[in-house]
Write a structure and sequence with these properties.
- The structure is a single chain.
- This protein has 241 residues and is mainly α.
- The protein has one domain.
- Helix content is 81%, strand content 0%.
- Helix 1 packs across helix 3, helix 7 packs parallel to helix 9 and helix 9 packs antiparallel against helix 11.
- The chain is globular.
């Protein structure tokens, strides 16, 4: 593609990123988080979202879906939105909505990284992971899916999304391995979001002991810890030098 198109695309990307940040900071007034033990501000904001969802369900799902794609594409991480989707839609529907939207967002980010940053990424990281290239290319779908399942073996989510650029991973394999590999983590985080919603709706003040001891909270956290431990051993086993 010609240079002018790349410049225009980069400008649109940065403009959209700025608009996204504006709406985030415009909607949330962080000064109102003055009392971390008080749920009233979070409850008031969540009730606005839940009321809109109840009145215009399909429109809300569509807007959240598009927003999630844009969020992952521009910001590169997804945990806050995964918690929010569980908070708003519950763990089952939230998992489905966030899974599809995150996968699309990750894929678009991969395409952009491959388009703009391939040479830069290869220059910075090529030598460090060249030893993994033949290993990865033996079955890129399987290994990247496992890589996603174990949370990138400790690799930040944004970095996971662009790392396959070095291996020139096929787009189809990237999409489906990302989709399948994200299921465990997204379900766990959505479950945590659902648990947080129930506690906020049923309590006026935050009691840390009751919060942690609630099954809706400690089970997702326990599963997440198990996933982290598993990722450590998988990294040692499959991604060792």
């Amino acid at each position: 593609m010609n240079k002018n198109f790349k410049i225009i695309l980069a400008f649109v990307y940065m403009l959209s990123f700025g608009i996204l940040l504006y709406f985030i900071f415009h909607y949330l007034d962080f000064k109102d988080f003055k009392d971390l033990n008080d749920y009233s501000y979070i409850r008031d904001k969540s009730e606005i979202l839940l009321d809109f969802k109840d009145k215009k369900l399909f429109l809300f799902i569509f807007l959240f879906f598009i927003f999630s794609i844009i969020w992952v594409l521009f910001l590169g991480f997804a945990s806050p939105l995964a918690i929010m989707s569980g908070f708003i839609f519950g763990k089952w529907y939230g998992t489905i909505i966030s899974l599809f939207s995150f996968t699309i967002g990750c894929t678009l980010l991969y395409i952009l990284a491959k388009f703009y940053l391939k040479n830069f990424i290869e220059k910075k990281l090529g030598l460090k992971i060249a030893k993994y290239k033949n290993f990865f290319n033996k079955n890129e779908f399987f290994y990247f899916m496992i890589f996603r399942i174990v949370g990138g073996a400790g690799t930040p989510f944004a970095f996971q999304n662009i790392l396959p650029v070095i291996f020139d991973m096929k787009l189809k394999n990237y999409f489906y391995s990302t989709f399948l590999g994200l299921i465990p983590t997204i379900f766990i985080v959505n479950s945590l979001g659902e648990g947080i919603e129930k506690i906020i709706q049923n309590n006026e003040q935050l009691n840390y002991l009751n919060f942690i001891s609630d099954p809706a909270i400690y089970w997702p956290i326990t599963c997440f810890i198990i996933l982290l431990i598993t990722s450590f051993f998988v990294k040692k086993k499959l991604f060792k030098e």
